[in-house]
């Protein structure tokens, strides 16, 4: 333990690039929805590694798969195919609208592949000039230069020189603005069915239906970024199922691997045909280790029991947060779907989401923010009723501390 204690937050400033500002806590062990730090303090985890740890920490089925595949075959390269990748692709095709799958390592990479594909598809099918990509303000699609430019938060894309062109950002859920912007020059529309980093804002049903209809009218492809909303997070395997609106491309990552880096882009055979041999690739994408773990994650999540637990725990969260708000009046509203929830702070506490996060950590709870005024919760999809209750009790202590100043 003495050697472990020598690794502190201070070491970060000595050896790491300063693009993050991590908390003082250094977690060293996790089990289920509990985490312990290097000082032995215990936390309830309502953050889930930012909607990644879909089965909590060290889930026995995941550990067993990792050990079994790890002693069999780790990496081959895409000169060959492999059994875990083909099995996972077949599972995703059988479980969704899709006919073809491309594997990558992260949500940004899946989105990059989708964006390159829609531009290539438009060029092949319609020729020059059909290149506009419509995206939305406050959206988040990753940190590669293409994806961060399509994401609607200039603070993340400014300061790196000339940006990729022909990208337009509109207000989310604004039908009139969308109708005015889309045309036959539009090659694709990219959107999250529920904005995550932008504040946990679900698409309006009428809006998402109109986007689909106008994409069809103008021969534009519709990309759903389900990096955060996918893999059971909303109570269905993918959030598009809630809306009854089917995209042309869908991206998945985060919870797909339950903590192991893996991502997928799903699409139709017709659209996929534009990524011919050599047009795109990924060294690690589709490696056996990642795909075996993701297969286990999907096998556990895509069951009536787990998806029902997402809905039940979501209702428990909402009731608990409403009870806290009845006492302290700190939230304007609680919104979201399934176990991706956002509590927007009321006027008196605007801009203080990070303060709530810090107070929560002091009370033994890990949570997240989604912008300066929204506290975000993205716990394990198999979290127990008892852990939700305990976490909410700790959250209430944090809220009380903020209110009492």
UniProtKB/TrEMBL annotation:
The modification N6-(pyridoxal phosphate)lysine is found at residue 254. SUPFAM superfamilies: PLP-dependent transferases. It comes from the Bacteria. Gene3D superfamilies: Aspartate Aminotransferase, domain 1, Type I PLP-dependent aspartate aminotransferase-like (Major domain). Keywords: Amino-acid biosynthesis, Aminotransferase, Arginine biosynthesis, Cytoplasm, Pyridoxal phosphate, Transferase. Its cofactor is pyridoxal 5'-phosphate. N(2)-acetyl-L-ornithine binds at residues 143, 282. Pathway: Amino-acid biosynthesis; L-arginine biosynthesis; N(2)-acetyl-L-ornithine from L-glutamate: step 4/4. Pyridoxal 5'-phosphate binds at residues 107-108, 140, 225-228, 283. It is found in: Cytoplasm. Its EC number is 2.6.1.11. Belongs to the class-III pyridoxal-phosphate-dependent aminotransferase family. ArgD subfamily. May also have succinyldiaminopimelate aminotransferase activity, thus carrying out the corresponding step in lysine biosynthesis. This is Acetylornithine aminotransferase. It comes from Ferrimonas pelagia. The lineage of its organism: Bacteria, Pseudomonadati, Pseudomonadota, Gammaproteobacteria, Alteromonadales. The gene is argD.
